[in-house]
Specification:
Length: about 450
């Protein structure tokens, strides 16, 4: 195909100029590294992991240490009344007692451990684990979304290049016909109107070429946006739109989606987490058994820190406590109702996600199938249009055809070439979307 040959020549020249050369696989890898979308989802995974660690802490012992140092002194004044009702002479005696400064040092270790709470804390920990799984599935979905955007941008840039080649080829043809029209007019085989019409056709082809060049520029912007980075000028893409993808049956696509789509798996894990949270909320009605213990040490000295260990006290204790919720102001009942509502919401979300997935798979399957058939159909149109243009040119040179026949034949061929390139693009993108709908799209 002339358009594809022109593109290959342009790629060769660009390669010699030292441009960025991108294969489809390499470009997708760049997008996964630089696009911010997966990074956002990775942050959600990290937050879920931290939340799971927090939930685990409720099942592990809690140990704390205390230590303190203080210095104190005191003064005591004692007043004795010596007056008598039978004597006119009396008075008071004051005594002052001074306690020298002393040092007090204390240290201790306290610990507690949850023994049994009817599954409340274990359920919360298990629920946090399901939330981590859901976040990881969302990360897979974000990666697949990035891959779809990258492949679409890559194919779109290829398409814009092919459409530009079609436009350039059309301009070349109209220029040749314009020159021929002038010669044929001079020898009397065509009229001056033919020259004017040929010049109009050439001007229209120039406009189409400018439009195609702008499409290439926009395609470059899309290519850089999907990758999250800027490339050198020009860009060389080593893959092409031509080719055939592996055929996938509709029933196989639906079966794969049911077990592989990240949104379905994420919704499933979220439902499991909601049910575990409901179990934990209901367990709040039940008692909680815990154990605690401590060890303490106290030392005092009136003669400085050197003799602090001469006067010490040590002690320890260990015990268990049973806590029974009697009245919480309605907070437990509210938590249970909230958890029940979350379960219902998660169930509906999963059901809706499955329905959307089924519809999405079927839409992408039929879109790919239609594009694949259009490739074959448009190739037939190209072959027939090429032959029609050749015959019109022969008749035109012999003075047996009007310029309008050439114009129509050129436009038909250019339209067929553009439609063929568009069908190839739709087929490639359709296959990518189908794999994404199935949940099996990889780098």
């Amino acid at each position: 195909m002339n358009a594809r040959i022109a593109i290959c020549g342009g790629l060769l020249l660009a390669a010699l100029a030292g441009a960025d050369t991108l294969s489809l696989h390499g470009y997708v890898a760049l997008a996964l590294r630089h696009n911010p979308g997966p990074k956002i989802s990775q942050g959600a995974v990290d937050a879920s992991l931290a939340n799971r660690e927090s939930a685990l802490s409720a099942l592990l012992p809690s140990i704390s240490g205390t230590a303190g140092v203080s210095r104190s002194a005191s003064t005591t004044t004692q007043i004795i009344d010596t007056s008598s009702s039978t004597h006119s002479i009396g008075g008071t005696i004051s005594s002052i007692y001074v306690t020298p400064p002393g040092n007090d040092v204390s240290a201790g270790v306290n610990g507690s451990l949850l023994l049994f709470d009817f599954g409340k804390s274990p359920s919360q920990y298990a629920a946090s684990g399901k939330s981590v799984d859901a976040a990881r599935e969302n990360l897979k979905g974000a990666n697949q979304t990035t891959i779809v955007a990258a492949r679409t941008a890559y194919y779109n840039y290829l398409l814009s290049g092919e459409l530009l080649a079609v436009a350039q080829n059309a301009l070349k043809q109209t220029t040749l016909h314009y020159n021929e029209a002038k010669i044929l007019t001079e020898v009397g085989k065509q009229t001056q109107l033919t020259v004017i019409q040929a010049r109009v056709d050439m001007a229209n082809a120039e406009v189409s070429e400018l439009t195609a060049e702008n499409t290439v520029n926009l395609g470059r912007v899309q290519l850089e946006t999907a990758a999250g980075m800027t490339f050198s000028e020009p860009i060389v893409l080593t893959d092409s739109l031509a080719g055939t993808e592996d055929s996938i049956a509709l029933k196989d696509a639906l079966a794969a989606a049911a077990v592989s789509r990240p949104d379905i798996l994420s919704a499933t894990r979220s439902l499991e987490a909601a049910r575990l949270q409901l179990t934990a909320a209901r367990a709040s009605y039940l008692p909680q058994l815990s154990a605690s213990g401590s060890y303490s040490w106290n030392g005092t000295s009136d003669n400085g820190m050197s003799s602090i260990f001469d006067n010490t006290q040590r002690g320890w204790n260990f015990g268990a406590a049973l806590s029974v919720p009697l009245y919480e102001g309605g907070s437990v009942q509210a938590s249970v109702r909230q958890a029940e509502a979350s379960v219902k919401q998660a169930e509906a979300t999963l059901e809706q996600t499955v329905l959307n997935a089924t519809q999405n798979v079927e839409q992408q399957f039929y879109a790919e199938d239609q594009a694949h058939k259009q490739i074959r159909a448009t190739q037939v149109v190209i072959d027939e249009s090429t032959e029609a243009l050749r015959l019109a040119e022969e008749r035109y040179r012999a003075g047996l055809a009007l310029a309008i026949e050439i114009t129509d034949a050129e436009q038909t061929l250019a339209s067929a070439q553009s439609s063929h390139a568009q069908a190839e693009y739709n087929y490639r993108v359709g296959h990518v979307n189908l794999l994404n709908a199935m949940g099996v799209l990889h780098e």
